[in-house]
Amino acid sequence: MFSEKELNLEEHEIRDVVRALPATRQYRYHQLEVRLLKRPSTYKALNWLFPMGIHHFYLGRWIRGLITLSLTLSGVFMIVAMQMTAYGLMLLLATVLIEIPQLLNARLLVHSRNNRIMAACLKQVQSE
């Protein structure tokens, strides 16, 4: 995984490079950055309110989102339509257990993603 200290150091290094850019490139960087950065609170709220993988879609992690959504819907379908309550509940419980680390590490996950986005924006601005 990654630690908060490492993520903060990485972010600080990126921001130092951005500060060294000319004003026009800094402006361009901030235009790109503001559209792409995500908020940890939104990610966490989506995880709490909709335990169906919506938070994965928010970060652009489509495969994880589709897997979580399909597991959740399969569990609900087993309970409602197939009357396999025990299996449906086990599937939903497994999905929740898989998602708990995502919820507990929401801030770090979003911070890591934002650092990657910041580095990509910086690279794009530097290559222009």
In short:
The chain crosses the membrane at residues 62-81, 87-110. The chain has 128 residues and is mainly α. Helices cover 83% and strands 0% of the residues.
List the helices and strands and how they pair.
Blueprint: H1 4-19, H2 23-36, H3 40-49, H4 54-58, H5 62-80, H6 85-104, H7 106-127
Helix pairs in contact: 1-7, 2-7, 3-7, 5-6
Largest sheet: none
Low-confidence stretches: none
Order of helices and strands: HHHHHHH
Mean pLDDT: 92
**DSSP E strands, number:** 0
Name the shape in a single word. Answer: elongated
Number of helices: 7
SSE-based structural type? mainly alpha
Distance between the termini: 33 Å
Radius of gyration over C-alpha positions, nearest whole angstrom: 19 Å
Share of helix, binned:
over 70%
- Number of separate structural domains: 1
Beta-strand proportion = under 5%
Describe the model.
The chain crosses the membrane at residues 62-81, 87-110. This is Membrane protein. It comes from Pseudohongiella spirulinae. Keywords: Membrane, Transmembrane, Transmembrane helix. The protein has 128 residues and is mainly alpha-helical. The protein has one domain (4-127). It has helices spanning 4-19, 23-36, 40-49, 54-58, 62-80, 85-104, 106-127. Helix 2 runs antiparallel to helix 7 (106-127) and helix 3 crosses helix 7. The chain is elongated, with a radius of gyration of 19 Å. The mean pLDDT is 92.
Salient structural properties:
83% helix; single chain; transmembrane; mainly alpha; 128 residues; membrane; 7 helices
